[in-house]
Amino acid sequence: MIEIKNLTKVYPSRGGAVTALDGVDLSVAPGSVYGVVGRSGAGKSTLIRCVNLLERPTSGTVWVAGRELTALSPKQLRAERRRIGMVFQHFNLLSSRTARENVELPLEIGPGGARLTRRERRTRALELLDVVGLADRADAHPAQLSGGQKQRVGIARALAADPHVLLSDEATSALDPETTRSVLKLLKRVNEHLGVTVLLITHEMEVVKAVCDSAALMEDGRIAESGTIGDLLTRERSELARELFQLGEAPAHTALPDTTVLDVTFHGDATARPLIAQLSRTYAIDVTILGAAIETVNGQTVGRMRIGLPGRYEDNVVQIGFLRERGLSVETVGETGAGAGTARLEEVAS
Amino acid sequence: MSWSEMRPLLWQATLETFQMVGWSALFTVLIGLPLGLALVLTDKGGLLANQAANKVLGTVVNVGRSLPFIILLIAITPFTRGIVGTTIGVDAAIVPLAVGAVPFFARLVETAVREVDRGLIEASAAMGASHLTTVRKVLLPESLPALVSGLTTTVIALVGYSAMAGAIGGGGLGDLAIRYGYQRFENGLMIATVVLLVVLVQIVQWLGDFAAKRLAHR
C-alpha cells in the first residue's frame, strides 16, 4: 500500500547539512498496522511527513495505493492526499469549529468530485463520531473536550474522506497511558473493520506491542531493522524484539559460575508445551529459571524465559539443540564476554 | 447656545462621523485584510513564501504607518481629488481616513493570522486543501476573534482620525467641536461633542469585545 524507495531528506543549515533520512526503504502491506519506532531525532517524523509530501524528500520515491506521489502535479497530489488520512500528536483541530464541523472539514475540501450537500456532510460526520464513540459530543468545541476525546475527533476527521491509508504521527504521545490504550484500540478497530492501512510512528514500544503487526526500528535516519512482529520475535539478536520484550540485564558472569545462561523465546504451539520440564527430565539436569515473561503481542502469545543450564556452553550443545528442534529460539547470554551481550548460537557452534 | 439650537447641529455632525468612519472602515477592511494576509503568506516559511514581495509590502506598510495622520491628510490631497473629485466634505475625508487606517489594520491582521497554529495549516494541507482553501477554511475562521478585536481598535482610531479630517472640511463631530467650541467659545457644545465621542467609542469597544468573545471558543 505504501512503498518508499531510497528516500533521503537533507536539511540545509548553517555549518553543514543535516541528513534526516538516509536512504530509507519501507514497504507497508495493504491492511497492516505498521509501526516505526525510534528515539526522537531518528527521523521518524520526517519520514511520515514525506509519505504525504508535507515534506519534500531530497531524493527517492513514494508510492501510495499504486500512485507515485513524488511524480504528481500539485493538483494531482492534493487529490491523492484526500485519500490519505492523518492524525497528529497535538490533534490540530480547528478551535472555531465544533467536533462535528471539524469532521466535516475534509468533506468541504477538494476539487469537484462528488461534492456532498450540507446535510450529507452532517450525516457522515455524525456517523463517524459515532464510530469513535463521541456521538454525544458532536456540538462541543475542542476546548470543551479532553485530550483523548480530541484525538478521537482527529481520527474521525482523518476517516471522513474514506482514506485507504491512515498516517499517525505520535498520535498517543500527548495522552495518558489509559487514554493511549483506548485510542490504540480504536485505531486497531478502524484497521480491522474499515480495512484502512495504518502507518504510525511512535517512540513508545508499548504502542507497537498493542496494535502493530509489523514494525521497523529507525536509527540515525536509517531503518535498522524491520519485519512482521512474528518474524522479529523469533529473529535472534533482534534489537526490536529485545526492546518489545524486555528481560532485563544479563546477570554477571561471576554471579553464575559454570552456568550457561540462555534466553529462550516461545511462540505459537510451544507456549502450550512443558518444554523446560521435558528438558530437565530428558537430560537429568537442573534448570535454573532466572527470569520469565509472557505477553500478548498483536494477538500472539509469546513467552520469553532466561534459564541457566549447569556446565559450560560446550556441555550444553545437545540440550540447546533439543530446545531449538522444538521450535524455540535460543540465544546464549554473556557467552562471548566483553562487548557483545549475546552471541549467536551458530557462530559459537561453528 | 441652547440645547434646541445644538441638537440639529450635533445630530448632523454625528451622522457625518458615522458616514466617514463607516465607509472608511469598510474600505480599510477590503484593502487591509488581503494586505495583512499577504504579509503573513509571503513571509519566510509561509504558504507563498516570497522574500522580495514580503519586503516590498512590509516597506509600503511601514511608510504608511510612519506618516502622522495630519500630514498624510494634506499630502494626499491630489490623490483624493483624483478619486472623489473634491478635497472637502465627507466623501473627500473618507479617502485619507482609509489610506491612513489600511497599514494600521494590515499589521493587526498580520499579527492575528500569525497566531494560528502551524499544525492547523499542516493538517489542512494533509487533507488536500489548496492554499486558497486553507486561507478561507482555516486561517480566517481561526483568527476571526483576533480580527474582530483588530477591527474594533481600527474603528476607534478612525473616530479619532475623523476629528482631524473634520478640521480640513470633512465635517463630523470633530469639525463641530473646532468650529463652534474652539473658534466661537461655545463651551456647552464642546462638552456635548466630547461626551458624544466618548459614548461612541465606548459603544464601539463594547460591541467589539462582545463579538470577539462570542466568536472565540477557548
Automatic annotation (TrEMBL), chain A:
Which parts of the sequence belong to the ABC transporter domain?
Answer: 2-245
Q: Please indicate if the UniProt record lists Cell membrane as a keyword.
A: yes
- UniProt-listed CDD domains: ABC_MetN_methionine_transporter (cd03258)
User: One GO molecular function term?
Assistant: ATP binding
Top-level taxon of origin: Bacteria
Keyword field contains Membrane: yes
Q: Which InterPro entries match?
A: AAA+_ATPase (IPR003593), ABC_transporter-like_ATP-bd (IPR003439), ABC_transporter-like_CS (IPR017871), ACT-like_dom_sf (IPR045865), MetN_ABC (IPR041701), MetN_ABC_transporter-like (IPR050086), NIL_domain (IPR018449), P-loop_NTPase (IPR027417)
The entry's keywords: Amino-acid transport, ATP-binding, Cell membrane, Membrane, Nucleotide-binding, Translocase, Transport
What protein am I looking at?
Answer: ATP-binding cassette domain-containing protein
TrEMBL record, chain B:
- State the Pfam families in the record: BPD_transp_1
Family from the record: Belongs to the binding-protein-dependent transport system permease family.
Gene3D superfamilies with a match to the protein in the record: MetI-like
Q: What is its main location?
A: membrane
Tell me the SUPFAM superfamilies matching this sequence: MetI-like
Name its cellular compartments. Cell membrane
List all membrane-crossing ranges.
20-41, 53-76, 82-106, 146-168, 188-208
Q: Which organism is it from?
A: Catenulispora subtropica
Instruction: Provide the ABC transmembrane type-1 domain boundaries.
Output: 14-208
Q: What is this protein called?
A: ABC transporter permease
